Amino acid sequence: MQLKQLMLVGAGLMLSASLAVAEEQKQDMKAMMEKMEKAGAPGEQHKQLAKMEGKWETKTKSWMEPNTPPMETMGSCEHKMVMDGRFLKQKCMGDMMGKKFEGVGVTGYDNTSKKYTSTWMDNMSTSLHVMEGMAGDAKTINQQGETTCPIRGHMKLRSVMKIVDDNTHVFEMYGTDDKGGQEVKMMEITYTRKS
């Protein structure tokens, strides 16, 4: 008889402990979900990116070598917020060196890392460029990344996006190759709002 009572008491304690653990896990899950929702909610940085939505004319200056005149091309881009206002998607078209140019980029702000992240791909390369960085101020985003250039080899990249006003922004790209180690301006794109 004592053994039966002891087993019943033991089973009761195990059941109570299991229920307590389940309740604690339920509370932990709720706290985890709240953190995830907060981290995933669009904030002020996303509102800043949304100001760049629209159709743009682009004037691109590209430097193939330092201290030489830039090659200038015209194009167009459409910027649109996607994923419920979390990311700015850029679709650009134009001509480069007599060939049709198409590119797609995505820029977002990661609430968890507190950094802007951008990706870029186009039909002139098989590289997917990834950049990451911080806001310099309310109108500037500074990012860094790396790439392998078919001409210069491995390069460190630095970009600066300057918001001039609601109808103009300027993107600058700088590169530093492993050979010379000196940073050079590679590209400047001026975006002027069409609509």
UniProtKB/TrEMBL annotation:
<dbReference type="Pfam" id="PF07617">
    <property type="entry name" value="DUF1579"/>
</dbReference>
<feature type="region of interest" description="Disordered">
    <location>
        <begin position="53"/>
        <end position="75"/>
    </location>
</feature>
<dbReference type="InterPro" id="IPR011473">
    <property type="entry name" value="DUF1579"/>
</dbReference>
<protein>
    <recommendedName>
        <fullName>DUF1579 domain-containing protein</fullName>
    </recommendedName>
</protein>
<feature type="signal peptide">
    <location>
        <begin position="1"/>
        <end position="22"/>
    </location>
</feature>
<keyword id="KW-0732">Signal</keyword>
<feature type="compositionally biased region" description="Basic and acidic residues">
    <location>
        <begin position="53"/>
        <end position="62"/>
    </location>
</feature>
